[in-house]
Structures are given as C-alpha cells and as structure tokens.
Amino acid sequence: MKNKKKYKVASLFSGCGGMDFGAEGGFQFLGNHYEKHDTQTVYATDFDKSICEIYNSNFPIKIDVRDIRDIKSEEIPNHDILTGGFPCQSFSVIAQNPKRLGSKDPRGRLFFEMCRILKEKRPLVFVAENVKGLLSANNGEAFPLIIKEFELAGYHVKYKILNASHYGVPQKRERVFIVGFKGKKAFEKFEFPEPVTEKTPIPISSILIQEKEIEEKFYFSEKAVKGMNSSKHAKTMNKGRAQKPHEPCNTVGAHLSKVSLNSTDPVLCIQGRYRMFTPREVARIQSFPDNFTLSGSKTINYKALGNAVAPVVMWHVTKKIIQALQ
Description:
The protein is an alpha/beta fold. The protein folds into two domains: 7-200 and 309-325, Vaccinia Virus protein VP39 (Rossmann fold, 3-Layer(aba) Sandwich), CATH 3.40.50.150; 204-288 and 296-300, no CATH class. The chain is built from ten helices and 15 strands. It has helices at 18-24, 49-56, 110-121, 142-152, 184-189, 222-229, 237-240, 279-285, 298-307, 311-325, and strands at 7-12, 27-29, 32-34, 39-46, 64-65, 81-84, 91-94, 100-103, 125-131, 156-163, 171-172, 174-181, 249-250, 268-270, 273-275. The strands form five sheets. It has a seven-stranded mixed β-sheet with strand order 5-4-1-6-9-12-10, with helices on both faces. Strands 2-3 form a two-stranded antiparallel ribbon. It has a two-stranded antiparallel ribbon with strand order 7-8. β7 and β8 (100-103) form a beta hairpin. α1 (18-24) packs across α10 (311-325). The radius of gyration is 20 Å and the shape is globular. The relative contact order is 0.16. The model has no long low-confidence stretch (mean pLDDT 91).
C-alpha cells in the first residue's frame, strides 16, 4: 500500500493559527475527535508580533513576523495548499472601462499580495476566508473583481458562505470561504462540506466555565447595569447582546476586551448578573480545544481569537479539499 501524499500548507495572515489548526486536524472538541489530515504546515506569517507569540506557543514551526509586502515568494517554501484570511478593509472599484479592483489604503492592497504569491508559487489549491460583508462591498461590485483576480492568477474558483453553527461550532459565525484549484479535475470534484449541526446546533451552555470559577473582573458593575437599564436600548438588550444559553453565540469579534452593555458585542446574563466571556470561553466559542495555549494579555487573546478562523469549520473544508485532490 502506497503512503498517502502529505500536503504542505503555507499560511498567510496567520494570526493565532485558526486556519492552520483546522487544516492540520488531530484535535478533540466537545467530545468529537477531528482526525489528523494528511497535511503539514511548512510556513506561516503575520505582522502582529504579540499575536504571533500565541501561534508559536501552539505550533512546531516559528511564524515569520513580517509585513507580507516585504516577503519575497522565493522565501516561502514550496507548498501544495495556500491559506489566508486577507484583510478586507478599503476595497474600491475604480471607475474605468472595464472596472477594476483598487484600494483606498495599504490594508486593501494585501489581497493582491496573496494573488502575487499564488502566481509565483503555483500551489495546487488555495483557501481564502473573509467576512460575509465582502460580497456586498462597493454595492456588490468588488467581490466579482476579487474572484476575477484569483482566476487571473490561474485558478478555478468556488465560494460559499458557511455558518459555523452548522458544523459543530457553538457560534452563529457566517464567513465566506473562497477555494481555488489549479487543476480543473479537482475543482469539478470539490464540493463544500454539508452541514452537520444545522438542525441541532451546539448551545453556549456547553462551553461555559462554572460561575464559581469566574473572576469578578469579568462582571459588569452595578453602575454599568443601571446605566444600560436606564438607556433607550434597555428593552432591546436581550435581542442581540445578552446571549441565550440554549442557543449558539452571536459572532465574537476582535474587540471583546472593550465590550460594554451598550455595545453590540455578545455578553452573558446568568442569574441576573451580566458579564463578558472569558478568553477561554471565547476560544471554545471559536472551536479551539482546551489544550490550545492562550499566551499574553487578555486584550491580545480577545483580539487574536476574534479575528481567527474557526478551526472546526476549516477542518471540514480541508477534508473536502483533500478528497478532491486525491
């Protein structure tokens, strides 16, 4: 029996490693075992040094802490799969005929760096992840041009919005996954994963830390609660912010360290007391297992986790990619 091919993965905009963790597999989450894929991460890069320290605490390779614009393609090891959740701020559609994709600030140009690396390294497949709002950017005109850029890089492209709560994750997180194959045969074989928990989503209650173990600093003060109750938002608070324990959580974001009772970020109200989620609870909401190390400050953890790709969703996508490649 021939040994299975080990697919080498290179990771851009890696953050704390949600895509990489899911692409590799081999972890437990909420009693389910996500088997190891035939993959190996050979390269990862991100510019945020403090978040890169979390990555280095969890992976055998050391992340390349640099701006992607300073990285030459020949510095990246050869790989089969390229992954990245490119920043999506500031896309613009330039009024030319035909229209083309531009950017208003440096962050918008980072997408083109991913395309540059695809053109020069020519991996078998790429996976890009982004917010659902990318589809409607610039009145819906930017996204077709993004897809076109990936096609011009030499790839057959499919995309789909995946809701994390449909894949065993206790979070209603909708993200667009863009998958491109160099070969048409694998492209035609590839299908996005079918939902597994759409009708039976995982509730927040399954990941909460026992109340007696929660430090007082995570609770909102009586003054903050009184302020919320006396505001014009008091009656609508429970509609989108205080989460229902028997349902998946609303999307967690990068600014949970600054959450307030008058913001739109998810909070908890248990036995009449309001509190924020702990970093470990946010990690679980994102489907990171408890042996995933959270290093650094609470603020850094919230930022890293809020920006991360849910590993379990990426695991399902990677499984389908490998099936198509084989």
